[in-house]
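Renewal narrative, Specific Aim 1. Our central claim is that a sequence can be written position by position from structural information alone. The example that follows is taken directly from our test logs and has not been curated for this report. It begins with the structure tokens describing the chain, in the order in which they were read.
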């Protein structure tokens, strides 16, 4: 049964959509979007869904995640309905709807709460990190108020909630995508569909088509300045750093061995992460295009967290290399660890979650549309 939610239009503005009701269905946005196809008519189709309050149609759509929110469509809309921003808002709405605790909804919709929550979290993580050095004066002071076992168990509970939230969210999305079968559509094998997904993540083949339109702001810019490459740098920079950290942990790498493969991987990945996040922050501060000008505070803070994690990580790397023992290093390491832990803990409750939702949606899309693009 199709459910209509009359309050959806006002709800989605809280996630960052502009006046999408101004749309008069001219189709310019769909015509300019290099990612749309006969079977995936967006963003116009999603604007119709929004106007009609068909939120379930949005949540069970794999096509929603084909959009990279590049914003090209917003530049050409004659009604200033900002369809690109609307698509970005739908991504936030979907992440918040799949996640089961309701925390993401609150954080996306309430700026003040978001700032308060991330600040308190940083404080709690700082306390937690001090307790890892039980003989430190701050730790002894903390243990007088809260026993070690309580702090330890709280940490376990928080990490479990984060992990379960992302698994639950994925299950939620999976069930919706499964319920949205496209009738007689041809099915491609799981293997070939996953190959397409990894090919897309490795090369951003679809995202690259966004810059080719005649009217695109990015058309004549060099590849290293284009949004697809910036996105690629941030994504692979972060994945590389995670892999390097895991390898360090598993192989017990001595922290001072600079040429250890895991550390070379970490250095390269860190450079890509810093480059990508710096460029994104620069484009946002310069309001390079409408999609960079109109962003959500939660997305901005997330980006700053990535940049700080990358920068402080490099600071530590350089300090180790040059045996530079400045007292500030302890605080920089503390900031690095707090921000990195916040990123992990906020994974299920922030824009970060698109890192698992988009591949799943792409998989179902490629099951029916192999090599269409
Ligand atoms: S270009 Fe603007 S007015 Fe035209 S269909 Fe797209 S959102 Fe609607
Ligand atoms: S934001 Fe970019 S990818 Fe998304 S619908 Fe608009 S033009 Fe297409």
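The sequence written for that structure reads:
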């Amino acid at each position: 049964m199709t459910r209509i939610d009359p309050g959806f239009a006002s709800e989605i503005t809280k996630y960052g959509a502009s006046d999408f009701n101004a749309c008069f269905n001219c189709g310019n946005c769909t015509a300019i979007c290099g990612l749309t196809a006969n079977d995936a008519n967006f963003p116009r189709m999603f604007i119709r869904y929004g106007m009609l309050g068909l939120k379930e149609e949005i949540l069970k759509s794999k096509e929603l995640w084909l959009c990279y929110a590049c914003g090209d469509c917003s530049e050409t809309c004659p009604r200033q309905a900002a369809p690109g921003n609307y698509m970005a808002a739908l991504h936030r709405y979907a992440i918040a709807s799949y996640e089961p605790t309701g925390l993401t909804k609150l954080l996306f919709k309430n700026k003040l709460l978001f700032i308060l929550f991330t600040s308190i979290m940083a404080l709690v993580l700082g306390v937690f990190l001090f307790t890892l050095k039980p003989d430190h004066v701050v730790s002894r002071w903390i243990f007088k108020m809260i026993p070690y076992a309580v702090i330890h168990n709280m940490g376990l509970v928080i990490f479990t909630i984060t992990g379960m939230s992302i698994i639950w969210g994925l299950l939620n999305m999976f069930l919706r995508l499964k319920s949205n079968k496209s009738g007689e559509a041809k099915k491609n094998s799981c293997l070939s569909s996953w190959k397409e997904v990894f090919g897309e993540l490795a090369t951003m083949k679809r995202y690259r088509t966004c810059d080719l339109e005649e009217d695109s702001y990015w058309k004549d810019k060099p590849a290293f300045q284009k949004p697809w490459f910036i996105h690629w740098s941030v994504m692979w920079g972060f994945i590389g750093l995670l892999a390097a950290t895991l390898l360090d942990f598993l192989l017990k790498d001595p922290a001072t061995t600079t040429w250890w493969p895991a550390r070379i991987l970490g250095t390269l990945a860190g450079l890509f992460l810093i480059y990508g996040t710096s460029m994104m922050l620069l484009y946002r501060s310069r309001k390079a295009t409408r999609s960079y000008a109109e962003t959500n505070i939660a997305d901005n803070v997330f980006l700053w967290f990535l940049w700080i994690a990358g920068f402080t990580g490099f600071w530590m790397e350089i300090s180790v290399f040059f045996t530079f023992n400045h007292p500030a290093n302890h605080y920089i390491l503390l900031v690095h660890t707090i921000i990195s832990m916040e990123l992990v803990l906020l994974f299920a409750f922030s824009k970060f979650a698109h890192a698992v939702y988009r591949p799943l949606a792409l998989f179902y899309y490629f099951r029916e549309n192999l090599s269409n693009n």
